[in-house]
Design a protein that fits this description.
This protein is α+β, with helices and mostly antiparallel strands. The chain is 19% helix and 43% strand. It has three helices and ten strands; from the N terminus they run βββββββαβββαα. The protein has helices spanning 86-98, 152-160, 167-180; strands at 8-17, 22-29, 35-42, 46-51, 58-65, 70-74, 77-79, 100-112, 121-132, 145-150. The strands form three sheets. It has a four-stranded mixed sheet with strand order 7-4-9-8, sandwiched between helices. Strands 1-2-3 form a three-stranded antiparallel sheet, with no helix packed on it. The protein has a three-stranded antiparallel sheet with strand order 6-5-10. The longest helix has 14 residues, at 167-180. It starts with 7 loop residues before the first strand and ends in a 5-residue tail after the last helix.
């Protein structure tokens, strides 16, 4: 049987405070007595939606991501701002990133993005009954985004073909698939 006692934090220090996340180093003592340093990215979390048009197309965005030095295909998403709930975050982000507004929302779930080194959770939603905005809000100045419409089959094929699709989008697609195929919970 595994010892369920959590590690004890001996010392915690902030290494970096950034615009969207912080980075700290924690000196821990594990239940087995081993001590060491563990780094952690502290992130407020993110919200993501899978927008579905009336004819069943999925709306994705393709944008440049500096960390991997490439353009990546992903669903609209954004960082949760201070004192903001995830539903409000994604309602703002879908308009900014795609120029659409959704009138029907379904929470799909939430999951840790990279628990080995970050405390970030992603809150996933299905967005339906879309309206194309005549005057969408401006994209964030640091974003280079192209809107892409795909069928479920096209997106799955892109994933299987090795096109760069981020993990949060693949995981959220898995959560949405019963709804997309008409097998709602």
């Amino acid at each position: 049987m595994h010892n369920q006692e959590p590690p004890k934090i001996i010392k915690q220090r902030l290494q970096y405070q950034g615009r969207k996340f912080n980075f700290d180093v924690n000196h821990l003592r594990l239940p087995n007595g081993v001590e060491g340093d563990w780094e952690c990215i502290r992130h407020p979390g993110g919200a993501l939606c899978i927008p579905v048009t009336s004819n069943g197309k999925l709306i994705l965005v393709k944008q440049y991501r500096f960390a991997i030095k490439d353009r990546i295909l992903e669903f609209p998403a954004g960082t949760i701002e201070e004192n903001e709930n995830p539903a409000d975050t994604i309602k703002r982000e879908i308009e900014e990133e795609t120029g659409y507004r959704a009138h029907k929302w379904q929470k799909l779930g939430e999951f840790p993005l990279a628990p080995g080194y970050s405390d970030e959770f992603i809150y996933a939603f299905l967005a339906e009954d879309l309206e194309k905005l005549e005057s969408p809000p401006a994209q964030d100045i640091d974003e280079d985004i192209e809107t892409v419409l795909m069928t479920l089959q096209e997106l799955e094929q892109a994933i299987f073909d090795g096109e760069i699709v981020d993990a949060k989008s693949i995981c959220s697609l898995f959560l949405a698939k019963p709804f997309l195929l008409g097998n709602k919970k």
